[in-house]
Amino acid sequence: MSKNALTTYQFPTQMQWEYHQLMNSKESFLKNLSSAEQRKLEALYVELTNAWQRNHTETLNQALETKYQELREIQQIIKSDCADFRKSTEESLSANIQKKKQKLNTNMSSLAERKKNFEQSQLQRNLILSEKQQTLTQKRQTLAENQDFLNLESQRKSQALDEVEEKLNEKKQLLTETLELKNEELSKFIKIQTTYQADLQDLKQQLNASLQLLQTEKEQKLAEYKNLESNYQQDLKKIEQNLKADLSNYEEKLLQKLKQEILQEIQNCPEELKEYFLREEHSQISMKESLLSKETKERWNALTRGLSRIGLDKKGVDPAKFIELMEQHTLLNSN
Q1: Distance between CA atoms of 108 and 114, rounded to whole angstroms?
Q2: How far apart are CA 261 and CA 255, in angstroms?
Q3: Cβ neighbours, 10 Å, residue 7
Q4: 3 state SS of 54
Q5: How far apart are CA 195 and CA 187, in angstroms?
Q6: How far apart, in Å, do the first and last CA atoms of the chain sit?
Q7: Taking the CA of residue 335 as centre, how many other CA atoms within 13 Å lie in the half-sphere pointing to its CB?
Q8: Angle at the Cα of 183 (from 179 to 189), degrees rounded to 5?
Q9: What pTM was computed for the model?
């Protein structure tokens, strides 16, 4: 341990020996005791262990010594770093000072050259300025001469302006008189206009009254016309209904007459079909036609089969002869 190490508390040697003896003889003691006594002894051993472990001074001393050594190492590093930093800073400052000296010398030489150039340019400016002053003097003389001429012109124009102003005043007076006359005429016109407006208003009122009267008469006439129109419409409907009835009766009579004429032309028409025709039952007529057609077809087929039985063909036989043969065949079959 170093000379700077801290002293720590140590248990007496006798106490340490007794503690180790007790811990080593724990198992042998427990074997010879009952369960309750074993639990009690276990609790006592736990308390003894806790009391023994409360002395952490040795561990803390070791940790403190380690931290102290680390601190000393850090201090040494800081000292060495400070020396290096000081040295590098001095070198950097020296280099910067040297650069600034060089830059200053360069600027001084440049400034001297610029000063020389400025002096030369100043001499040139002075020469130019003297020339301009001479030119300015000449221009001043010319301006003085021009000023005299302008003064004469100004006097002449002033006289002309006075004459023009006098003429303008005369015209102004004339215009004033004319304006007064026009104002008088305007006042007269306003009076006439006022009278005209009053007359116009009266006329408008009269016209409005007349219009209202005419509107009332118009509405009355329209009402009368509507009544007449309604009556005419009713009469027209009645006439139309009568005409339709007469026309229907006339058509019915003509139709009946036409039907009678048609039936007179058809002498052999059955009475049943006549009744259907007169009652206009066309569906019954069509049905009757279908039945007759079907019956005729069936009879025709029967005739064909009968001729085939007797060895005749309907194509080569005259219809009258064909019917005669069929009747004979029917008589033979009946006998």
Answers
A1: 10
A2: 10
A3: 8
A4: coil
A5: 13
A6: 170
A7: 5
A8: 140
A9: 0.24
Q: Helix crossing, 271-278 with 57-265: angle to 10°?
A: 120
Domain ranges, ordered by start, for the chain:
13-113, 266-334
Within 10 angstroms of residue 70's Cβ, the number of other Cβ atoms is 10
> In this structure, what is the dihedral angle of CA atoms 40, 44, 49, 55, given to the nearest 10 degrees?
160
Joined tokens for residue 32: 């010879």
Q: What is the dihedral of CA 97, 99, 104, 107, to 10 degrees?
A: -160
- Contact (Cβ atoms closer than 8 angstroms) between residue 8 and residue 61: yes
Q: How far is CA 247 from CA 141, 204, 235, 242, 259, in A?
A: 132, 61, 18, 8, 18
Q: Are 263 and 269 in contact (CB under 8 A)?
A: yes
Cα–Cα distance measured from residue 269 to residue 285, given in angstroms and rounded to the nearest whole number = 12
Identify the residue whose tokens are 């400016």: 125
Nearest to 302 by CA among 314, 289, 287, 320: 314
Count CA atoms closer than 13 A to 108's CA, side-chain side. 6
Which of 303, 302, 258, 249 has its CA nearest to residue 278? Answer: 258
DSSP letters of 240-271? HHHHHHHHHHHHHHHHHHHHHHHHHH-TT--H
Per-residue pLDDT of the chain (335 residues; tens, 9 = 90+): 444 444 545 667 777 788 778 788 878 777 777 888 888 888 888 888 887 777 666 676 777 788 878 888 877 777 776 667 677 777 887 888 888 888 888 888 887 887 788 788 778 877 887 787 788 888 778 887 777 778 788 788 888 888 888 888 888 888 888 888 888 888 888 888 888 888 888 888 888 888 888 888 888 888 888 888 888 888 888 888 888 888 878 777 777 776 676 666 666 666 666 666 666 655 655 666 676 677 777 777 776 776 676 666 655 555 566 666 666 666 665 55
Q: For residue 15, what are its two tokens? A: 């106490």
